[in-house]
Amino acid sequence: MYRIPMGDYKFQNRRDFLxxxxxxxxxxxxxxxxxxxxxxxxxxxxxxxxxxTNDQHSRIEPFPENDAKYPGEGGFAKRASLIEKIKTExxxxxxxxxxxxxxxxxxxxxxxxxxxxxxxxxxxxxxVTFGNHDFDMGCENILKQMPSATFDFINCNYDFNDTVLxxxxxxxxxxxxxxxxxxxxxxxVGIDLENLVDxxxxxxxxxxxxxxxxNKIAAVLKNDEKCDYVICxxxxxxxxxxxxxxxxxxxxxxxxxxxxxxxxxxTFFDNPQVTLNSDKQPTQITQVGWAGVWLGKLxxxxxxxxxxxxxxxxxxxx
Length: 318
Description:
Blueprint: H1 14-28, H2 33-42, E1 46-53, H3 76-89, E2 93-97, H4 106-111, H5 114-123, E3 127-128, H6 138-145, E4 152-154, E5 158-159, E6 171-172, E7 174-179, E8 182-190, H7 199-202, E9 206-207, H8 210-224, E10 229-235, H9 247-252, E11 259-261, E12 273-276, E13 282-286, E14 294-302, E15 308-313, E16 316-317
């Protein structure tokens, strides 16, 4: 059951309190997401549905039925059908990916990412960030495949000025998406590519501190762009036993980031992990394993004051 930390919320008047209480009751009595949406929207709430993937690794087809771990699971066609169904039920949807779209099956060896980008475009992805394997054939290949993509590429800590991507306007440090009355800011950060990708494919790419750059962009999104919610697409990895920068380290040292959608470590989360940031405010971290065997689904409800009040986590096995 979803537990609501009442101490995290301040109510401006009785009406706002009643709206919050109604949302809490909806969660407490186990109403499904559609029932909660109907109930809350009638009382002045707006629902944001965040769909997400990470580390797809060119797994276009489902795993074979005799696979030891994921028999018959995954596959772009099944995911597309699921996304299409969700889009008939929800209005304010963001569809995101946290990197490593490429590499892992013969589809990438033969088509070099064209199939992945075309199918993701058909599904209606809004934005992606880069994973290390997305550079396995270099910046030249990313540039070559970009015409097949209708979505935005978001990263704020790689400097591509000395590469063929230097003048590409498709790569942004952040993007603001308008969903109903809400403004949702999305930024992206990537892992240090050294020792992960052959140096001949990363020549000219400069890696900068993801924490400093994420905080800089998050401040712009919250303070200048006036976003109601800030999402970081990260390919840093969830957590390490060393001092290597991870999503946990980023969350602990961040400000203004509400949600980190991660990748790289292929971690399966039933529910997001909550980590306190540098202002002792909660930042959520999530990830849905790899190979597209899950579709991440997060529903966030906002009051008429655009304050987050309730959340459902509904990751869906495919």
